[in-house]
């Protein structure tokens, strides 16, 4: 009956974390709160606050209906008392008493989670960095956490999926409420390659302040967070604050000091956060730690076709012309036309086109609208 009591308390408190923990502080447990008698608290210092509590009828009917509804929607309800509930999250601020999970059912204690966060209004370079970074992180056994928002969040989760790994999306509303709508396809891909998680029940529409609650969960479940882009007053800064409070590792991708989008990561680096130029800057923090080796190995076992995931970059060897083209694209930063690449590299255009095709197949470049090509990663040389 403990799960029903936990659901009942969450419903009674409208799923507001602070209110839930205020009642837990008084009664000790959800079950005690449900069974509490008014006569036992009339002399309590909390009685004036509890008067409204005792005026309401207590019943588990609604909790039972929610359990049935979640079964119908294939949504798993995880209690804080379950063995697979994240110890990381349990030891953070106001851990959810219950989590609603759609998709894969992780034992959250068996894997190493890294939250990748950044601005919705992101730059192309920032999105590329988030995508490539997460493609590589999952190949090392890391599970990527983000928030399904447009911009950095979406690219991080796309990268994790493209790398053949797993990703977890934390939502501000219910796990059946896809927001933003343009990320529907990504949402469906995440369900096939990970999970969507929320502390609020299905059908809940996200509110502005729910995102702050969601951000504490993304920081709480993670071993570390990576800040790709963000301003000093952004939602990303709230996630960073939570991560700092929870003593999580904080990494940051450096950027131009004249770009406001990099104010937050550059500030973090100035204050001592390790700068991230590639996935190796993150992985080296964990791959020799006794408490993380098994977690990474477990994550490697979840990779889809791990040999294929690594084959592109391992099997294709650059020749001199490949290197010239790649170094030119690296120096440009922006996407380039084959004709321009040919002219600057002094390589016939038909050879450039052939080389770009192979480099694209091998995942070193991508083609953008207008037949322009750009590097997928910055750490080739």
Overall body shape: elongated
Element order: H for helix, E for strand: HHHHHEHEEHEHEHEHEHEHHHHHHHEE
Q: How large is the count of helical segments?
A: 18
Identify low-pLDDT runs: 308-315
Average pLDDT score: 90
End-to-end distance: 59 Å
Strand content: 5-15%
Helices and strands: which structural class? alpha/beta
The quaternary structure here is single chain
Sequence of strands across the biggest β-sheet: 1-2-6-5-4-3-7-8
Give helix % range.
40-55%
Radius of gyration from CA coordinates: 24 Å
Main beta sheet: strand number and arrangement?
8 strands, mixed
Number of strands: 10
Break the fold down into its secondary structure elements and pairings.
Layout lengths: L1 H11 L4 H11 L2 H6 L11 H9 L5 H12 L3 E4 L7 H4 L7 E6 L8 E6 L6 H16 L2 E5 L5 H11 L4 E4 L13 H9 L1 E5 L11 H12 L2 E4 L7 H11 L3 E4 L10 H8 L9 H4 L6 H12 L4 H10 L4 H13 L5 H8 L3 H13 L3 E4 L3 E4 L6
Parallel strand pairs: 3-4, 3-7, 4-5, 5-6, 7-8
Antiparallel strand pairs: 1-2, 2-6, 9-10
Helix pairs in contact: 1-5, 7-8, 10-11, 17-18
Give a brief description.
This protein is of the alpha/beta class and 381 residues long.
What does this 3D model show about the protein?
This protein is α/β, with parallel strands linked by helices and 381 residues long. It is built from 18 helices and 10 strands. The chain has an 8-stranded mixed β-sheet with strand order 1-2-6-5-4-3-7-8, sandwiched between helices. Helix 7 links the parallel strand 3 and strand 4. Helix 1 packs across helix 5 and helix 17 (338-345) crosses helix 18. The longest helix is centred in the middle third of the chain and has 16 residues, at 124-139.
């Amino acid at each position: 009956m403990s799960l029903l009591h936990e659901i009942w308390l969450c419903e009674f408190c409208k799923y507001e974390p602070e209110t839930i923990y205020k009642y837990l502080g008084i009664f000790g447990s959800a079950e005690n709160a449900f069974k509490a008698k008014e006569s036992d608290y009339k002399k309590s210092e909390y009685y004036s606050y509890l008067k409204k509590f005792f005026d309401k009828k207590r019943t588990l009917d609604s909790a039972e209906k929610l359990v049935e509804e979640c079964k119908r929607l294939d949504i798993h309800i995880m209690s804080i008392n379950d063995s697979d509930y994240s110890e990381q999250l349990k030891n953070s601020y106001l851990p959810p008493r219950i989590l609603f999970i759609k998709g894969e059912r992780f034992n959250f204690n068996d894997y190493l989670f890294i939250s990748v966060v950044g601005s919705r209004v992101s730059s192309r370079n920032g999105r590329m960095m988030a995508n490539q970074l997460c493609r590589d992180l999952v190949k090392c056994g890391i599970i990527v956490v983000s928030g399904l928002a447009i911009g950095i969040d979406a690219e991080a989760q796309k990268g994790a999926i493209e790398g053949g790994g797993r990703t977890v999306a934390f939502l501000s509303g219910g796990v059946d409420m896809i927001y933003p709508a343009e990320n529907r396809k990504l949402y469906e891909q995440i369900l096939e390659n990970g999970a969507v998680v929320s502390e609020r029940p299905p059908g809940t529409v996200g509110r502005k302040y729910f995102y702050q609650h969601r951000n504490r969960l993304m920081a709480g479940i993670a071993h570390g967070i990576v800040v790709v882009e963000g301003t000093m007053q952004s939602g990303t800064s709230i996630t960073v604050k939570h991560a700092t409070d929870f003593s999580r590792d904080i990494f940051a991708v450096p950027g131009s000091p004249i770009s406001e989008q990099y104010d937050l990561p550059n500030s973090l680096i100035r204050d001592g956060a390790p700068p991230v130029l590639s996935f190796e800057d993150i992985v080296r923090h964990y791959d020799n730690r006794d408490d993380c080796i098994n977690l990474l190995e477990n994550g490697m076992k979840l990779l889809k076709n791990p040999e294929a995931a690594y084959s592109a970059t391992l099997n294709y060897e650059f020749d001199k012309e490949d290197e010239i083209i790649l170094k030119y694209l690296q120096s440009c930063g922006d996407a380039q036309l084959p004709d321009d690449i040919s002219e600057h590299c002094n390589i016939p255009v038909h050879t450039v086109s052939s080389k770009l095709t192979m480099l694209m197949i091998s995942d070193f470049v991508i083609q953008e609208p207008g037949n322009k090509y750009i590097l997928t990663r910055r750490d080739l040389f």
